[in-house]
Amino acid sequence: MQVDVLVPVLMYPDLPTLDSVSAGVRMGRLLGQGAQVLLVEAVLPRLEGHWGSRLVGVSGMAAELEAKQHEGAQALRQHLEAQATVKMAQLSQAQILQAVSVAARTHDLAVVSVETSQARELGQTLVFQSGRPVVLVPAQTDASRIDRIAIAWDGSRASARAVHDAMPWIRKASFITIVTAFDDKAIGRQTIDHLQAYLGRHGLEAYAEDVSSGSNAVGTKLQNGAIRHGADLLVMGAFGHSRIRDFVLGGATEEVFQETKIPILMSH
């Protein structure tokens, strides 16, 4: 199965490191037959005509920041062209998250290296607005294969969506484990049995572990459980809901965005 992977990289406000971008591209190549990198430069507001902008030289500062982004994007492009298809885009700062979400809708999967706060915000936006699964990649990951997979399972719609979206890689895995935090939600053993039976109908065997013990937050428990089993990828559903004007994340979802220890495929 050919998988079309988008690796968006934001150049503003902080330039990404080569290590973090390379980690995202490497993961994209592992998940698909290739990766398309989208280097996104922010076009900054000038506030033309405002007396304060002339006083502090806003237009000149914006131009300098844009030039710095472009120089960084060109350097990344030269480094990455042998590894992936590279495109560049210049977008209004206010439109970037929505525009990248729209672009991701015509790819099978998006991969985001979550090195910076703006990258984490992009990952969150893509999970809930692109309609596609998103793989969050720690900046320092040295993943060289997708062979051992952990599934964070609670029987919910979101976790079922994530398992479905991850099946191309689950089918190829040599080892599958189901990690569940029974102390986080009212999760019955039967729902684990149902997932194991579903995987069994695909000719797959999955082990199961309860990661409830310990005082860590549930998102950390799930990641630690996956790491104990040597997982190359953790599959989990993303939870969130709108509250007035803010988007409120579920507990485990928020925790993995705050600290991503292992590559995580998230679906909503």
Structural notes for this entry:
This protein has 268 residues and is α/β, with parallel strands linked by helices. The chain has 2 domains: 4-137, HUPs (Rossmann fold, 3-Layer(aba) Sandwich); 148-267, Rossmann fold, CATH 3.40.50. It contains 9 helices and 12 strands. The strands form 2 sheets. It has a 10-stranded mixed sheet with strand order 3-2-1-4-5-12-9-6-7-8, with helices on both faces. Strand 4 (109-113), helix 5 and strand 5 form a beta-alpha-beta unit. Helix 4 crosses helix 5 and helix 8 (218-228) packs across helix 9 (251-258). Residues 242-248 have low confidence and may be disordered.
Oligomer: single chain
Largest sheet: 10 strands, mixed
- Could you state the order of secondary-structure elements as H and E? EHEHHEHEHEEHEHEHEEEHE
- The CATH superfamily label of the largest domain reads HUPs
Indicate the topology.
Layout: E1 4-10, H1 18-31, E2 34-43, H2 51-56, H3 58-80, E3 85-92, H4 96-104, E4 109-113, H5 117-129, E5 134-137, E6 148-152, H6 157-170, E7 175-180, H7 189-201, E8 207-210, H8 218-228, E9 233-237, E10 240-243, E11 246-249, H9 251-258, E12 264-267
Parallel strand pairs: 1-2, 1-4, 2-3, 4-5, 6-7, 6-9, 7-8, 9-12
Antiparallel strand pairs: 5-12, 10-11
Helix pairs in contact: 4-5, 8-9
Family: Belongs to the universal stress protein A family.
Organism: Devosia enhydra
Protein name: Universal stress protein family protein
Features:
Rossmann fold, single chain, two-stranded antiparallel sheet, 268 residues, elongated, alpha/beta, 10-stranded mixed sheet
